[in-house]
UniProtKB/TrEMBL annotation:
Heme binds at C486. Belongs to the cytochrome P450 family. GO terms for molecular function: heme binding; iron ion binding; monooxygenase activity; oxidoreductase activity, acting on paired donors, with incorporation or reduction of molecular oxygen. Pfam families: p450. It comes from the Eukaryota. This is Cytochrome P450. InterPro entries: Cyt_P450, Cyt_P450_CS, Cyt_P450_E_grp-I, Cyt_P450_sf. The chain crosses the membrane at residues 24-43, 55-72. Its cofactor is heme. Keywords: Heme, Iron, Membrane, Metal-binding, Monooxygenase, Oxidoreductase, Transmembrane, Transmembrane helix.
Amino acid sequence: MGLSLPEQYPILITAGNLISKINFYYIFAGLFIYLMIRPYIYYYKNRKSLAPGPLPLPLIGYWNIFLIGDVAQNKYNLSEKYGEICDITMFGHRCVIISSPKYLKELFSPSVHSPYLRRLPLTSGFIELGMDREGLLLNCDIPKWRHNRKFFQQSLSPPSFLQLCTKYTVECCEENIDYWNCIIKDNQNQVIRLDEWFRAFTSDMMGLVAAGSKEASMKIQFMKSTNQIYKEKKIEEEENKGEIYRRLRSEYADALGFYIFVPKLLWNLPFIRVAAKYYKNILNYLTDFEIQFIKERKQQIKIEKESNISGQNSKVRPDFLTMLITQNIDDDPSPDEIKQNIREMFSAGTGTTTTTLCSIVYLLAKHPEHEERMVKEILSVIGNDDRITSSDLPKLPFTEAVINESMRLYPVVPITYRYSPDQDTKIGDYHFNKGTIFAINLSHIHRNAEYFENPDQFIPERFLGNWKERIPQYAFSPFGHGMRSCPGKNFSMAEIKVILATIYRKYTFKLVNPNEPIQFKFTLVNDITKMEAYIERRK
Ligand code: HEM
């Protein structure tokens, strides 16, 4: 009798086949992923307070909002979806997106003792950039930040400085107008890249105001747009130095993005290592360059002081750098501190103004009735050819309303941050542990229908008259609020007003693609990507 197979044999065979087909690597990988995800689900469900928000991803939390799409738009969408307080996690840091002015009193406190004097926690990128302890923007060392803020503010505040800025802005506008007149001489309806022109303008302008450096950005922009080669319009030696400085600063802007967004953990990987080394070199060149001209200026000031040279005979320009050096004794602030303050004046003051100017042109081109009213006001105050002075600026309320309304719809800093490493916070019904980052969603707040009727429409009139009584304080914050608000606010408002007044009385602009939305790229601020417009002489 032969061996008979057990009845369940076919079933065993099938099971055996199945088992042999299972790849145990997948099982282990699945188990590993489950074990990684589990703490996040646990954390999500058991947070001390349950503010709404998306489920954090394993290890990276909600870091994908930095990796996919536009960060500012992603945060805007999260506020739309989850409401006024939205809880996310980024690399182990709890981050709360706030999009209502109701919760900002404490975070935007104007007190020197506020626990929210820091903007963001310390990162290895900030340390590499030296920004953790120098300058203002990302300085986490509060005594040092206070020290610098005092010098920064004192240098920008004197009325004489504002007058000087107005004068420099007018000079740059006149140079710009010369170039534009040349460009449209034979060809009305010429297309120009407004983003590039405004970038060149703000760069030259800031060069004069910050460090007295004569730059040639507009000249180069002119040559580029008219296809002239550099040799035809010679770049002077002084301008050449300015051009090197401008290029180093532009590379520095890329370095900022690298150090802030690429974690140190990755700096030694192939390819990334090359970039890390390149940016390190850029930082070193830029520092050497800056320290050199700060020392030269200090020396010049010292010599003139000792020889009692002043007024017309002085060769020292009365710019921000001179202000920083002369308002103190001995070596305080040190060349390193001065260097960082100057650097931040450039990085915080050029892109922001460029984007704001482009937004204004964009909105006015879409609303010619508001442009007409603004131009009428400008002509009635300064006429067709007179030079604008700082005393004319308060007489332009509608122009100011246009600027405010543009900054409401397109705030160049769509999100600002506050952070306390040592104090728990209660916001609404929610409790947040110390170390939580608060992302204040200015762009979302600015479009809140509770405070702005027809929030998506361009209505400059809402900023006329006693608007500060009608609009709650924190509902409109293009320059932030409190101790870390923008120290360049008055300067920028004056600069933008002068530019609009000088340019709009001569020209009008039509968008090349009027149906396209305005395009920004968010790094730390919203940068305009491209804006083409037809430029026409005003009749
Ligand atoms: C349209 C132009 C500008 C806009 C819309 C703007 C907006 C802002 C905003 C929203 C902040 C953050 C405020 C907060 O967190 O409460 C800020 C900070 C800052 N801005 Fe501006 N800004 C502009 C131009 C300038 C200019 C021209 C300068 C330099 C003169 C400047 C220097 C700074 C600095 C140094 C900080 C950091 C302050 C600190 O942390 O203590 N900004 N700006």
